[in-house]
Amino acid sequence: MRISQCMIVKNEEANIEKALSWGRGILWEQIVVDTGSTDRTVELAEAMGAKIYHFDWIDDFAAAKNFAISKAEGDWIALLDADETFVPGDEKKLEALLKKIHHTDKDGVCTAWLQLREDNTISVASTQIRVFRNKPGLQYRRRIHEQLGYTDGRILHVADATEEISILHSGYRGEAWENKKQSGRNRKLILKELEDHPGDYEMLGYLGDTYLSAGEDDEAIECFQSSIKAMPSALDEHDARSASTFLYLMQLLEKKEEEEELKRVYRKAVEYLPKEPDFDYVMGRHLAVCRQYTEGCSYLEKALDKLERFRCFNRAMYLSAHIQDAYEVIAYCGLMAGEAEKAVTFSIAVLKEDLYAMKPLVILLKAFRGNAAVPGVLPEQVLGVLQKLYDFSLLKNKMFCLKAAEYAEWTSLKQTITAMLTSQELEAVKAAAGESEK
User: pLDDT tens digits for 211-237?
Assistant: First the structure.
């Protein structure tokens, strides 16, 4: 079983060496198709042993990718961009999976696709088919936002590896992304597609994306609304493009405080894609901001239930990247709605994954502290819960919990934790307090 890595590039000298390194242990060949670089991209790729081909750019990503595919001799093709790599170690999982499905009817592999911010946290989680068989008639269509499929219309059989294998993408950030936005490249190619295929609801959605990223909200709203009007009577349940159209439109309507239109679009979105949790997540967060805590909590729990039941294969793009936030908002809604048990349960769930997340710890302490209507528990009892989460032999853990107790305005708990400090630790706490005051 041979795997060919293919990529199309232009002026990628900052990324090319990393892009050609992730699969060194599993790849049979590496093919780089250059579309007009003026930097050292080709030189660096050649030095790393890649096969170099040149393709005259004709404003068509599908054409360039299909040219790269035509040069591949492997049984399988991994076609990632220069600003993408697999999560370290996932290339071995990919190799094992391909060996497992090599003699089945699977045509491709769907993996998770994670868009990274500048600080390398995840901004968006989606799914992509970037690994597929090298078979006649299996290629890309469309100038931009190209889609893989058979030219004769045959169904693509895909193995779902979204929970095991992930691709990291860093291209939508920094100077390179700003240059792409300012060039208007994507919009120009989308408009060409719409000239050839007027009323293409997917392309209208992608056009809306370009306006959204440029901060042209009114134009984006118009495009997304036009896309929804042009949609067929039924959508495939894994139609991620249409899910994005509904999602972005809902977010824009929320931003403009168009409450009734937001609810109308939500109902339409759920009618078309009832298994998509992102819509419920947006509505739940919106209601929480509007202080409708009980209703907001209901939507958020519905979103998590859908994610659990229907998984994230080509759905839950937004929620998958904000799972911790969803838990935190549910915890906060529970606290504000007087449902202390819910606040405690969801706060602890977050803290088990992110021990030093301050917000859920404060919510947890406020839920335990109680209020005039609901009596709280004793500080000594809360301390027992905290010690199950935190190693109190470490000063930083005691200081973290002290700070949380301060934010929660729970004086007696602060005193209880302070009483556990040694004289040396007390001096360190006082010193830290003095530095913060400066």
Answer: 999 999 999 999 999 999 999 999 999
Specify whether the CB–CB gap between 44 and 97 falls below 8 A: no
For 153-211, the pLDDT digits (tens) are: 999 999 999 999 999 999 776 665 566 555 588 999 999 999 999 999 999 999 999 99
Instruction: List the 76-79 sheet strands across, edge first.
Output: 51-54, 29-34, 3-9, 76-79, 122-133, 108-116, 158-169, 84-86
pLDDT number for residue 241 = 93
Residue 71 three-state SS: coil
Q: How close are the terminal C-alpha atoms of the chain, in Å?
A: 64
pLDDT at 125 over 70: yes
For 118, counting Cβ atoms within 10 Å of its Cβ (0-12 exposed, 13-18 middle, 19+ buried), the class is exposed
Do residues 275 and 319 lie in contact, with contact meaning Cβ atoms separated by under 8 Å? no
* Phi–psi pair at 362, nearest 5 degrees: -65, -40
Q: Determine how many CB atoms are found less than 10 A away from the CB of residue 280.
A: 24
Euclidean distance between CA atoms 270 and 375, whole angstroms: 40
Q: How far is CA 39 from CA 36, 49, 105, 235, in A?
A: 9, 18, 42, 44
Please state the φ and ψ torsions of residue 250, each to the nearest 5 degrees. -60, -40
Mean pLDDT of the chain: 93
Partner residues linked to 113 by β-bridges: 126, 167
What is the rounded distance in angstroms from the CA atom of residue 180 to the CA atom of residue 185? 7
Provide the b/e sequence for 14-30 (b: ≥16 CB within 10 Å).
bbbeebbebbeebbebb
The amino acid at residue 209 is D
Burial grade of 276 (CB within 10 A; 0-12, 13-18, 19 or more): buried
Cβ atoms within 10 Å of 279's Cβ, excluding its own: 27
Q: Which two tokens stand for residue 141?
A: 């269509």
Burial class (CB in 10 A: 0-12, 13-18, 19+), 183: exposed
**3-state DSSP assignment of residue 184:** coil
Q: Which residues contact 44 (CB under 8 A, 6 or more apart)?
A: 13, 16, 17
> pTM, whole model, 2 decimals?
0.84
Contacts by 118-124, CB closer than 8 A, 24 or more apart: 118/173, 118/174, 122/321, 123/172, 123/321, 124/317, 124/318, 124/321
Q: C-alpha distances in angstroms, 9 versus 14, 61, 169, 342?
A: 11, 10, 15, 50
Q: E strands within 298-367?
A: none
